[in-house]
């Protein structure tokens, strides 16, 4: 999709709050690598693991509705495997890494704006990222799906941003790598655009008068 179709630039709007997604924006991960690791450990095909995981999880882990122990038990029952919680955490967090170029940008942005994190994430991934990269250091506020019980693009999770910040929607700018999440934010009234890469992000920020 072309930049001019997805940015919905509002140059007369004063941006007072920047809100960032995590995975696919400043945290890199390879979903296929993760699935391949689980497939090998449970002796099924990657496609079978993905189908089974989506069926037994149904986003409950990201909503904080099931614990790691419960999820592992469901997977073991469905796959006929005997994964331990420790093995699950190792496989589940394989390939997670922080994008240093992006996090350096955050340092400059924090001098100009409060930064919020808005992420669909489970307890295992967040604990790993916080332990290894101290991701919370970049943000004034963390809005995590497994803590609030909602996931993007549900409107309730964007309203949580407005509730905690006290900001009007048009003063907020949200960045996410997934189009449905961008559209969900716009439906609530936030300015939002899709992240496709570092240089494109700089260009879109420039459209809003944000210098990095």
Number of discrete helical segments: 12
The rough form would be described as: elongated
Query: Could you name the CATH class of the largest domain?
Result: Alpha Beta
The helix-strand sequence is HEEHHHHHEHEHEHHEHEH
**Number of DSSP strand runs:** 7
- CATH fold category name of the largest domain: Rossmann fold
Helix-and-strand structural type: alpha/beta
What is the topology?
Layout: H1 3-6, E1 17-20, E2 27-28, H2 31-42, H3 46-57, H4 60-63, H5 68-79, H6 85-92, E3 97-98, H7 100-109, E4 115-119, H8 123-133, E5 141-144, H9 145-148, H10 155-165, E6 172-176, H11 179-188, E7 191-194, H12 198-207
Parallel strand pairs: 1-4, 1-6, 4-5, 6-7
Antiparallel strand pairs: 2-3
Explain what this protein looks like in three dimensions.
This protein is an alpha/beta fold and 212 residues long. It folds into two domains: 3-28 and 97-207, Rossmann fold; 31-92, DNA polymerase, domain 1, CATH 1.10.150. It has helices spanning 3-6, 31-42, 46-57, 60-63, 68-79, 85-92, 100-109, 123-133, 145-148, 155-165, 179-188, 198-207, and strands at 17-20, 27-28, 97-98, 115-119, 141-144, 172-176, 191-194. The protein has a five-stranded parallel sheet with strand order 5-4-1-6-7. The longest helix has 12 residues, at 31-42.
């Amino acid at each position: 999709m072309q930049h001019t179709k997805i940015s919905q630039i509002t140059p007369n709007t004063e941006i007072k709050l920047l809100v960032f997604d995590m995975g696919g924006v400043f945290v890199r991960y390879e979903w296929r690598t993760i699935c391949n690791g689980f497939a090998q450990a449970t002796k099924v095909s990657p496609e079978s693991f993905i189908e089974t995981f989506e069926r037994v999880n149904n986003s409950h882990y990201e909503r904080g509705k099931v614990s790691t122990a419960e999820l592992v038990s469901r997977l073991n029952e469905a796959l006929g495997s005997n994964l331990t919680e420790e093995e699950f955490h190792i496989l589940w967090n394989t390939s997670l890494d922080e994008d240093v170029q992006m996090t350096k940008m955050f340092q400059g942005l924090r001098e100009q704006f409060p930064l919020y994190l808005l992420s669909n994430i489970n307890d295992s991934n967040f604990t790993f990222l916080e332990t290894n990269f101290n991701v919370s250091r970049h943000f004034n506020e963390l809005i995590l799906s497994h803590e609030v019980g909602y996931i993007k693009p549900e409107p309730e999770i964007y309203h949580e941003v407005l509730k905690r910040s006290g900001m009007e929607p048009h003063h907020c700018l949200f960045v996410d790598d997934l189009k449905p999440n961008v559209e969900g934010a716009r439906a609530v009234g936030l300015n939002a655009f899709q992240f496709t890469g570092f240089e494109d992000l700089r260009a879109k920020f420039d459209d809003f008068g944000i210098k990095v």
